[in-house]
């Protein structure tokens, strides 16, 4: 009895990228990495599998759904981001020179419910600076985000900036238990998705049992204070001024206020277009390990599609691996989210995918060695060349293959051409044909392919 036929398919939340889209993805990655390296960043690679305790920090309140690996004899899991493995690397290799500036491209996996625009497996392209506690490092991260967007040819974006140090003062300003801060910030971070009304309702939702703060159950007075905080409007300078007035009497807010003022001062000095960044007090970032400036990048034409690059300062993350104090800041481009958003806005249509430039037809099997030699000489000259390897014997069929693949130039070489030491060039767009000496072929085709 034969083996049962397997249905071809993928689990929900995962996808294939076929060649054209995969080539555009690679182009995006190359542009981003080029910017990273201009700022002195170097690549790092870590395995997709880590010890489960590395990822969870042995935190009983850890609530990220992760992929665990069964049957290995060890408690292993798949990474859900690239930041926690980076912290592990810094603890494991303390001899690394600081400041340590690294970028990393990698697939991460999250056991979330798949939905439109959210995948369970996706690629991130992170960049981080470890060692400096200066706000200048955070400013450099924001500067890099701006330069990447410029390199991609995107002008209609906004980098929204805040600091967790201001957000950490909210319990003292709004009058609620500091133990409720994390769920409050997670709710605030959903403002763009659920709106102000949804935030108010979630903040007031009663806990399921005493000591359970996922539903913070804030008083009306505390909720009103948070709404007042979130409602501060104006440009960055105006928001800082209004916030200064609002929290002037809150000692716990002063460090955050000074941090926002510093961000404003130094971001102005970078020359970044002020239309592409602003102080936004609603930016909270849901992960617990952020300790200072936080930032998110939205496309202004499609803000509902969410952030394509986000991050912040995470000074305490490395300390989970021992008595290690290592300030750190960074951000991450979600490559799959970036592809989806740019595709929806038509940006990907502007990226031309360059496949083979030249097809060497194979119309006489006795000349196969010649076809290989011709293609090899063209490749050595830096030209993208393929020999037709399919089952279609006719010239017409092979020209059809070139047309479907968008190959602009086809070389025809039969017995007549072999005896004369020449090859026939067909330009697919115009249909024109001309005879070229094999001696000059590489030089001539280099001109055509420019």
From TrEMBL:
Please state which protein family the record places this protein in.
Answer: Belongs to the class-II aminoacyl-tRNA synthetase family.
Task: Give the Aminoacyl-transfer RNA synthetases class-II family profile domain ranges.
Answer: 37-342
- The answer to keyword Acetylation applying to this record is no
Q: Which UniProt keywords apply?
A: Aminoacyl-tRNA synthetase, ATP-binding, Cytoplasm, Ligase, Nucleotide-binding, Protein biosynthesis
GO cellular component terms listed in the entry, alphabetical order: cytoplasm
Please identify the protein, giving its name as recorded: Histidine--tRNA ligase
What does the record give as the reaction this protein catalyses?
A: tRNA(His) + L-histidine + ATP = L-histidyl-tRNA(His) + AMP + diphosphate + H(+)
Q: What is its EC number?
A: 6.1.1.21
> InterPro entries under this entry?
aa-tRNA-synth_II, aa-tRNA-synth_II/BPL/LPL, Anticodon-bd, Anticodon-bd_dom_sf, His-tRNA-ligase, HisRS-like_core, HisRS/HisZ, HisRS_anticodon
Gene3D superfamilies with a match to the protein in the record: Anticodon-binding domain, Bira Bifunctional Protein, Domain 2
Instruction: List GO BP terms, alphabetically.
Output: histidyl-tRNA aminoacylation
Gene field: hisS
Q: Which domain of life is it from?
A: Bacteria
How does the record describe its quaternary structure?
A: Homodimer.
Q: Where does L-histidine bind?
A: 81-83, 110, 124, 128, 285, 289-290
Q: Which GO terms describe its molecular function?
A: ATP binding; histidine-tRNA ligase activity
Q: Which organism is it from?
A: Candidatus Komeilibacteria bacterium CG11_big_fil_rev_8_21_14_0_20_36_20
Subcellular location per UniProt equals:
Cytoplasm
């Amino acid at each position: 009895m034969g083996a049962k036929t397997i249905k071809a398919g993928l689990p929900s939340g995962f996808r294939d990228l076929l060649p054209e889209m995969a080539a555009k993805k690679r182009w995006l990655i190359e542009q981003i990495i080029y910017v990273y390296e201009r700022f002195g960043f170097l690549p790092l690679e870590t395995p997709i599998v880590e010890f489960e305790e590395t990822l969870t920090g042995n935190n009983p309140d850890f609530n990220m759904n992760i992929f665990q690996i069964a049957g290995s004899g060890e408690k292993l899991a798949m990474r859900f981001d690239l930041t926690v493995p980076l912290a592990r690397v810094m603890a494991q290799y303390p001899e690394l020179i600081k400041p340590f500036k690294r970028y990393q491209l990698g697939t991460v996996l999250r056991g979330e419910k798949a939905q439109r625009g959210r995948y369970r497996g996706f690629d991130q392209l992170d960049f981080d600076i470890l060692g400096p506690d200066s706000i200048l490092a955070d400013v450099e991260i924001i500067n890099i985000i701006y330069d990447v967007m410029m390199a991609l040819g995107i002008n209609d974006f906004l980098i929204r900036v805040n600091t967790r140090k201001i957000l950490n003062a909210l319990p003292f300003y709004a009058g609620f238990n500091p133990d409720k801060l994390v769920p409050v910030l997670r709710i605030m971070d959903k403002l763009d998705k659920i709106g102000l009304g949804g935030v108010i309702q979630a903040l007031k939702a009663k806990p399921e049992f005493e000591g359970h703060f996922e539903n913070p159950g804030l008083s009306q007075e505390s909720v009103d204070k948070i709404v007042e905080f979130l409602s501060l409007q104006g440009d960055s300078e105006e928001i800082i001024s209004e916030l200064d007035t609002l929290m002037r009497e809150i000692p716990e807010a002063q460090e955050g206020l000074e941090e926002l003022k510093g961000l404003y001062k130094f971001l102005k000095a970078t020359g970044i277009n002020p239309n592409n960044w602003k102080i936004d007090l609603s930016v909270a970032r849901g992960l617990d390990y952020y300790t200072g400036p936080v930032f998110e990048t939205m496309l202004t034409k499609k803000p509902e599609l969410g952030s394509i690059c986000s991050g912040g300062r995470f000074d305490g993350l490395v300390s989970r691996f021992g008595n290690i104090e290592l300030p750190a800041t960074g951000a991450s481009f979600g490559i799959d989210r970036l592809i989806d958003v740019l595709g929806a806005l038509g940006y990907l249509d502007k990226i031309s995918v360059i496949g083979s430039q030249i097809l060497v037809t194979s119309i006489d099997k006795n000349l196969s060695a010649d076809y290989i030699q011709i293609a090899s000489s063209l490749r050595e000259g830096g030209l993208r060349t393929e020999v037709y390897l399919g089952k279609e014997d006719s010239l017409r069929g092979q020209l059809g293959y070139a047309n479907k693949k968008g190959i602009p130039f086809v070389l025809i070489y039969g017995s007549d051409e072999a005896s004369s030491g020449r090859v026939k060039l067909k330009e697919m767009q115009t249909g024109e044909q001309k005879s070229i000496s094999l001696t000059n072929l590489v030089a001539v085709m280099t001109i055509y392919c420019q």
